[in-house]
């Protein structure tokens, strides 16, 4: 696979991994970096953008849900978890990269009508740091084989 195709595959897997679909993009990032170490920053930026856009698609799903009070009244449910997200606001989306809860945080942020720009910036920051840690670990492992 050439450089352009590798970056496209990374962007696609990063986007899909951040949606409600199962999947992970870390292995694709490592594969791209092993094959093309000079693409470090391009790969990190594309992975971050793709993963953030995927998270924002979950945010949009949350925005399309009925408002909190109407849904809780209909279902008789508790708002404890949502109150936790609401209490922390957009900074909680620094954790949007985490397995299982990350998608729920993005949907909850949309549902709670957290400012979309703040949500996107905190999502991107958390996702970038995660990819940076993965890239650093991959570099360390690759260096040990040389």
TrEMBL record:
<keyword id="KW-0812">Transmembrane</keyword>
<protein>
    <submittedName>
        <fullName>Membrane protein YqaA, SNARE-associated domain</fullName>
    </submittedName>
</protein>
<dbReference type="InterPro" id="IPR032816">
    <property type="entry name" value="VTT_dom"/>
</dbReference>
<feature type="transmembrane region" description="Helical">
    <location>
        <begin position="43"/>
        <end position="65"/>
    </location>
</feature>
<dbReference type="InterPro" id="IPR051311">
    <property type="entry name" value="DedA_domain"/>
</dbReference>
<feature type="domain" description="VTT">
    <location>
        <begin position="27"/>
        <end position="136"/>
    </location>
</feature>
<dbReference type="Pfam" id="PF09335">
    <property type="entry name" value="VTT_dom"/>
</dbReference>
<keyword id="KW-1133">Transmembrane helix</keyword>
<keyword id="KW-0472">Membrane</keyword>
């Amino acid at each position: 696979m050439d450089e352009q195709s590798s970056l496209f595959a990374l962007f696609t897997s990063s986007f899909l991994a951040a949606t409600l679909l199962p999947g992970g993009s870390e292995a694709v990032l490592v594969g791209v970096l092993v094959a093309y170490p000079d693409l470090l920053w391009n790969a990190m930026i594309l992975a971050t953008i793709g993963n953030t856009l995927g998270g924002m698609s979950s945010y949009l799903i949350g925005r399309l849900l009925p408002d909190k009070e109407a849904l809780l009244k209909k279902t008789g449910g508790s708002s404890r978890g949502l109150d936790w997200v609401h209490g922390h606001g957009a900074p909680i989306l620094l954790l949007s990269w985490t397995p299982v809860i990350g998608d729920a945080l993005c949907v909850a942020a949309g549902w709670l009508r957290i400012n979309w720009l703040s949500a996107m910036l905190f999502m991107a920051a958390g996702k970038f740091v995660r990819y940076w840690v993965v890239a650093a670990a991959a570099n360390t492992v690759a260096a040990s084989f040389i």
